[in-house]
Amino acid sequence: MPAVKGDGMRGLAVFISDIRNCKSKEAEIKRINKELANIRSKFKGDKTLDGYQKKKYVCKLLFIFLLGHDIDFGHMEAVNLLSSNKYTEKQIGYLFISVLVSENSDLMKLIIQNIKNDLISRNSVHTCLALHCIANIGSKEMAEALGNEIPKLLVSAETLDTVKQSASLCLLRMLRTSPDSIEPGEWINRAVHLLNDQHMGVVTAATSLIHELAGKNPDECKGCVSLAVSRLSRIVTSSYTDLQDYTYYFVPAPWLSVKLLRLLQCYPPPEDPAVRGRLSECLETILNKAQ
């Protein structure tokens, strides 16, 4: 669950405390039913609920659901939170939708419209929330409606690194669940060049995406071979200080190295003698270090 104290949702904190202090299952169910009746009456009767109150009640519904109880209302209030400009309200709205809204829901068109608004927002945090929601739900309807928007985010020079990272993983999910909804195009070649990005998080996420693309469009992604070898070589020959934040037990960026090696397995050995020689040096160095 999201943090409670820092957000000041005292009502939620008290409710969680009440549930934890219940001495029996019957007492817990009684307290939950009382809370559900209260939330239902608030949603039905109080038309002046502000964003904070909606967020608080939606959070309670989420908590009740996570305890194993069915929730059959509150979905519209969660969707309304998506249009908020406050991060915590939008975050709770997206969290509720990701967990509790079915991909066949009647609210899906309204949800998709809100997601579209956040994808083109200048607020990168809102954009990332939208991308995470798409990746979590991964419905065909979402893929068809938003499939052409995410590649634009991925390859745009104006996109921040955190958004590129999220866009890579979101696109990967969509390619796995609804591959026909994503049209191949010039963006694939530009995505391949993310292997050369300065941000290691972007490179790691993009490598997973490119591996998926290479399996479906090998010819369009073949430029990744030399770029992958170059990146692998830089990792293998780097010192501890070069990749200090990505070093695990004195091994620089081991997860990225494995991803790059798996990507290279999609293609035959490089024809270019220089690239082939560099790859051989990488493999020899890796084996020597492993021994």
TrEMBL record:
Name the Pfam families for this protein. Adaptin_N
Tell me where it resides.
Endomembrane system
Say where the protein is mainly found: membrane
Question: Which InterPro entries does this UniProt record tie to the protein?
Answer: Adaptor_Complx_Large_Subunit, ARM-like, ARM-type_fold, Clathrin/coatomer_adapt-like_N
The source's superkingdom equals Eukaryota
Entry keywords, A to Z: Membrane, Protein transport, Transport
**Keyword Transport appears in the UniProt entry:** yes
Q: Clathrin/coatomer adaptor adaptin-like N-terminal domain: which residues?
A: 29-291
**Stated name of the protein:** AP-2 complex subunit alpha-like
Native source organism of the sequence:
Saccoglossus kowalevskii
Q: Which gene encodes it?
A: LOC100366818
